[in-house]
Structure formats: structure tokens, C-alpha cells
From TrEMBL:
The keyword Calcium does not apply. The keyword Chloroplast does not apply. It comes from Acidihalobacter aeolianus. Keywords: Plasmid. Residues 23-144 form the Actin-like protein N-terminal domain. This is Uncharacterized protein. It holds the Pfam family MreB-like_C. Residues 187-303 form the Actin homologue MreB-like C-terminal domain.
Length: 341
């Protein structure tokens, strides 16, 4: 049997065989991969910048060797992905549309993440923005199954955050948790979109799924206000400035906190008004509101001020991938149990 992982309750290590799970949270800023190394059972997380460009010949030997490791082929076309693509491309150009998931670039990222995991015949766990998940969950699943010949499950991205909170690292509910008796909202603040889902008594309420502004909104706001001050920043610089609140300006650090605070307020208002509108009938009855994704750091304070039961996962950026992996392990365990019954 391929992709054997062993694990159990009393050992950190193995007692039961099961195929591997590889969770691929393909975001517009980065691909987050979460998996258990097949040979050791060790948990691994890789972050790969979401940059993909058609490959070309690199003449420098050292650079060419590095680029070879970051090259994958999709439908006969070789692509540079990750760090190599980021360095070789002049401007990264990830189309910000829902259709992106059917592109060769998207498949190139999945292939690279999968190759890095080294897993044989794994179950693939994938996420989609909440609104897209309602519309094309099945279509993406079929597309990926056809391309890789592997089993796949697709869920709305915030569902990963939910599972990262509810399940332990082998996919078993954490002590005291009964999924069917708990109700949660989960919010994933990403670069392209912020996504929300509602789970009532363990059931995903599809009608209350929504996607709204992502961190890109704050980046654009900051770039516009800096431009009014005569400062032109590219996207990457402006996104970094959101976190540092300063920029390097002719050899000096320049404090831009007031402009960053305004840009973040703009993003936060958009997200909190969407969440308020969608959850108005539910929020006070929920066990909590989970807020993850790399952008959670920007909105956490505003969320906490409004909703006292906000829960921020420990590793905000990997919460989606890690939760999807845990859910995959739970799914495999349930299947094995069914088969042996
Ligand atoms: N260490 C970091 N390096 C770069 N960006 C970071 C970092 N930590 C947080 N961020 C910020 O978090 C944002 C969202 O990150 P995340 O990885 O969750 O987005 P994504 O999954 O790529 O986007 P989406 O889900 O919308 O497609 C980034 O746009 C960036 O502004
Ligand atoms: Mg994301």
C-alpha cells in the first residue's frame, strides 16, 4: 500500500496504517502546504510564494541549479514556481479572479507543493474562497482529480481554520469538543479575499458564506495615499509597509504609521460590516468567532473590540492548511473504520 502513515492515541507514533493527506492552501500571496512526512510521521509545513512564470534558459550555473528545483511541467509547458519565479519575474502577475484555479499556473503550484511533500497517492485537501466554494467546489475537485489522478476534497478556506481549532493534530476532536453541539463563525483574512463561513451545530450553513475585501484593499489604499504624498511604492513594498509601518527612504527609515492605520481601518471597516450584516442573527449565540489567515493580524484588535468571543489561532497564516490536513486525517480514519466494520 502506498503513502502509509502510522499513528495512534497512546504513542505519538504509529499503530494504524492510512494513506497520506497533503493539504494545499493555494493563496494569492503564498501556497501553504501541510502534511505528515510519510517515513517519519513528522508534521511539515512549507510556504511557497505564489509566483509562476513560463521557464526559460538560465545561463548562470548556480542559479540554473536552483531554478531546476523550482521547475514543474504542466500540459507540456515548463514553469518556474515559488522563489525562482519571484526573483526572475519583474512583476508578479497573479490574476485576481475566481477562474485562476483553472489555470496552468494554479496546477503548477499544486504540482510543486505535492512534489515537496514526497507523498505517494495522497488525499489532496484544497480550499476555495467561500463564495467560489459554493459555486465551483465540485468543478475544481473534478478538475484536480482528472489532472493528478488522485482523490481530492475541496472546502471553503475558513473551514480549515475551524478544523484547526476543533481537531487535534491527528484529526480527532480536541478533548471536550463535540462538533455537533458547537456553533462557530470562521473568518479567513487573505490577500485576495476575506472569507466567512458559519457552522451551526457542526453543519456548514452555505447561505451564510461570503467573500469580501482582502489585504489587497489596504495595500491599494496605502499606495494611493502615499502617491498623494509623492511616494510611489510597488505592491510588494506597500504590503510589507503595512506590517512595518515604515519605509526605507533614501537611506533613512520613514514612519508612515498614520497612513498605514488609515489603510487598515479602511480594510477593517469593510470586513466588520460584512461580518456584522451576515452574522447579526447569530453572533451572540455562537461559541466563538475564529479569525485566521495572514491578514488576521491587521483586524484582530477591531474584531476583539466588537466581539468578546473572538479566537485567533496560534499560527494564523497556516491555520487553513493545517485544519484541512487534520480534516483529511479524520476523513481517512472514518473511511478505514467503515471498511473494517
Ligand atoms: N510573514 C509574512 N510575509 C508576508 N506577508 C505576510 C506575512 N504575514 C502576514 N502577511 C500578510 O498576510 C496577508 C494574507 O496572507 P495569506 O497567506 O493568508 O493570504 P493568501 O492565502 O495568499 O491569500 P488568499 O487566500 O486571499 O488568496 C498577505 O497578503 C500579507 O499582507
Ligand atoms: Mg488564503
Amino acid at each position: 500500500m502506498n503513502g502509509i502513515i502510522l499513528f495512534g492515541h497512546f504513542h505519538r507514533g504509529p499503530i494504524m496504517t492510512s494513506p497520506a493527506t497533503v493539504a494545499l492552501d493555494v493563496g494569492r500571496s503564498a501556497l501553504k502546504v501541510s502534511y505528515r512526512e510519510t517515513s517519519t510521521g513528522r508534521l511539515c509545513q512549507n510556504l511557497i510564494p505564489s509566483a509562476v512564470i513560463p521557464a526559460f534558459k538560465i545561463t548562470d550555473a548556480t542559479e540554473a541549479e536552483r531554478a531546476a528545483k523550482d521547475t514543474v511541467t504542466v500540459h507540456g509547458q515548463p514553469y518556474f514556481v515559488g522563489t525562482t519565479a519571484l526573483m526572475q519575474a519583474r512583476e508578479s502577475d497573479n490574476a485576481l479572479t475566481d477562474e485562476w484555479v483553472y489555470s496552468n499556473e494554479y496546477l503548477a503550484l499544486l504540482t510543486h507543493g505535492l512534489n515537496q511533500s514526497g507523498a505517494q497517492n495522497p488525499l489532496l485537501m484544497l480550499g476555495l474562497p467561500s463564495r467560489a466554494a459554493r459555486l465551483h467546489r465540485q468543478k475544481l475537485k473534478d478538475h484536480v482529480i482528472e489532472h493528478f489522478g488522485l482523490d481530492a476534497k475541496v472546502m471553503p478556506q475558513p473551514m480549515g481554520i475551524y478544523y484547526s481549532h476543533m481537531l487535534n493534530d491527528i484529526g480527532v476532536p480536541t478533548p471536550g469538543r463535540v462538533l455537533s453541539r458547537e456553533s462557530w463563525a470562521a473568518v479567513d483574512v487573505g490577500r485576495y479575499s476575506t472569507d466567512l463561513i458559519l457552522i451551526l451545530d457542526g453543519v456548514w450553513i452555505e447561505q451564510v458564506s461570503e467573500s469580501c475585501a482582502g489585504v489587497v484593499t489596504a495595500v491599494d489604499h496605502l499606495r494611493r495615499s502615499l502617491r498623494d504624498d509623492g511616494v510611489e511604492l510597488d505592491f510588494t513594498e506597500a504590503e510589507a509597509a503595512l506590517r512595518t509601518k515604515s519605509l526605507r527612504w533614501y537611506g533613512k527609515q520613514r514612519d508612515i504609521s498614520p497612513l498605514v492605520d488609515k489603510a487598515i481601518e479602511h480594510l477593517t471597516n469593510d470586513i466588520t460590516s460584512t461580518v456584522t450584516r451576515l452574522l447579526s442573527d447569530y453572533v451572540r449565540k455562537l461559541d466563538g468567532v475564529l479569525v485566521g489567515g495572514g491578514g488576521a493580524q491587521f483586524v484582530a484588535d477591531a474584531f476583539r473590540a466588537r466581539w468578546p468571543h473572538v479566537v485567533i489561532p496560534e499560527d494564523i497564516r497556516f491555520a487553513v492548511a493545517e485544519g484541512m490536513r487534520r480534516s483529511g486525517e479524520a476523513h481517512i480514519r472514518a473511511q478505514l473504520k467503515k471498511r473494517s466494520a
